[in-house]
Amino acid sequence: MTMQMQNIFTQTKNQSMRKIFISILFIISAGITNAQIDNLSNMSPEWIRTGGRNAAIKGSDLVVYNPATLTRLEKGLHIGLGNQMFMRKPSHTYDLGWGEVKHEQDGNDYFVPNLFLSYNKNKWAVWGGVYISGGGATANYPEGSLNTELIGLSLLSAFQGAYLGTGQQYLKASSLYLTGTAGFSYAINEQFSAALGVRYVNATNKTKAGTELIGDFSNLPVNMEQEDNANGIAAVISLSARPIEKLNIAVRLETNTKLNFKTKQKVDDLEQSTGGMAELVVDGQESRRDLPGLAGIGIGYEFSKAFRLTAEMNYYFQQHADWGKRADGKRINTLAGDAMNFGGGFEWMWSKYITWSAGAVYTMLDFNDMAGYYTTLGAFETAPYNNLTANTGFAIDLSEKFRVNVGVAKAFYKKDKTVAIEAMAPNVVKAKLNNDVLMLGAGIDLRF
Questions:
Q1: Cα(301)–Cα(303) distance, rounded to whole angstroms?
Q2: Nearest by Cα to 132 from 38, 198, 268
Q3: Do residues 226 and 54 touch, judged by C-beta distance below 8 A?
Q4: Between 20 and 30 A from 3 (CA), which of 73, 119, 154, 299?
Q5: Under DSSP, is residue 141 helix (H, G, I), strand (E, B) or coil?
Q6: Residue 305, domain CATH
Q7: What total of structural domains would you count in the chain?
């Protein structure tokens, strides 16, 4: 640490250090949010092509969407293997007083795989799988974002004029909730079946960010890198009813998955340059970010052997999950509110070999305080808000035991959605949000 920096920190330790912690922690107090998406419904290529699987009666992905109905599959071993690709372009635009700035996601996610297995015999089925239940995305901003700019401004303020401005910024964050599930399904009679299962979530969030403070005689690089890890267990309950031959009703409940993340510090230039008096990453710090519980229902009706309609709803109990607190004590999950989506679609068998499907899903994020939630790192970068997804695709039956699923889905968001930048209060500054997501899915279903 230079003599100039030693003098600055010695003179301002009580006031400036308190200020730097308050301002920066207010921005990154929920740093493990990263690129996390807590209400994933697209967990298989079959969902990509249909837009809803809660009331499905065929396919290996019944393991996650409707495991009670697995008892209706043909006897034997069923294997499903698939992958999804996400082309995401979230962006945010703002003006802090020196001209409008726009930051946009750079890069796509090409590998979001799943594997589902079930073995059926008589009235029962055992099943398991590995898939992504949350996250699955990367937020890549090679020129920084609003949050990196706010952190840079906080640092300039804390150094009290020792540096004149900030240089190149960057942010890259990823989130992966790798999930394993297993359970047992049983057909009580011809009309009712039930399933009970457990799922294990291993979550890893990674964040790299940095900027450079520019001075008259020297520049100060400020880079940080951290990895947050957690694991948790949840229960799954599924019920399926067929009151009449052509009607299927399914209900699925998933309990909250407690995830207590622990931070591993990899890089923290601020800690090194200040001799440990300030830091961006606290090694060993614990932070909660649970995966919310879910209640889902689906209804499917077969108008004929060739045509079937489905409708469904999923409700995510985000306010019952612990997402930690901001530096000011406000609970992040309360700011976010609950989330839900509503979907409907059809499957139309064109021939013995080809089934066309299409659907639509409306996702509603019921924010209690959208501006407050957007103070957490990852919100502006992933730009979550209400959207409508259109889905379509084909199931190709190459034989009675070999099916190929291909699908495409497009999410539509309101253009120039505005949200206040709370960190700039009492000044009223708003950011414009835009988002664009294209999803592709492909997979195979095998039966032995």
A1: 6
A2: 38
A3: no
A4: 154
A5: strand
A6: 2.40.160.60
A7: 1
Least Cα distance to 370 among 420, 315, 324, 414 occurs for 420
Tell me how far the alpha carbon of residue 317 is from its chain's centroid: 15
Q: Six-digit token pair at 370? A: 């959208």
What are the mean pLDDT values of the chain's consecutive 10-residue runs (448 residues total)? 43 43 44 56 95 95 96 95 95 92 91 96 96 86 91 83 86 92 96 97 93 86 92 97 95 96 91 79 90 96 96 96 89 94 96 96 95 88 94 96 97 96 87 96 96
CA gap 69, 71 in Å, rounded? 5
**Rounded CA separation 443/77 (Å):** 17
> Which residues, in sequence order, are CB contacts of 73 under 8 Å at separation 6+?
58, 62, 118, 120, 125
E strands of 318-436, at which residues? 339-349, 354-365, 387-399, 402-413, 417-420, 430-434
Q: List the end-to-end C-alpha distance of the chain, in Å, as a whole number.
A: 67
Structure tokens at 46: 């079959």
| Integer-rounded Cα radius of gyration of the chain | 24
Residue 319 is part of which domain span? 3-447
CA distance 141 to 145: 6
187 dihedral zone (left: phi>0; alpha: psi -120 to 50; beta)? beta
Both structure tokens of 183: 């359970």
- pLDDT of the residue at 440: 97
pTM over 0.70: yes
431-441 b/e with 16+ CB inside 10 Å = b?
bbbbbbbebbb
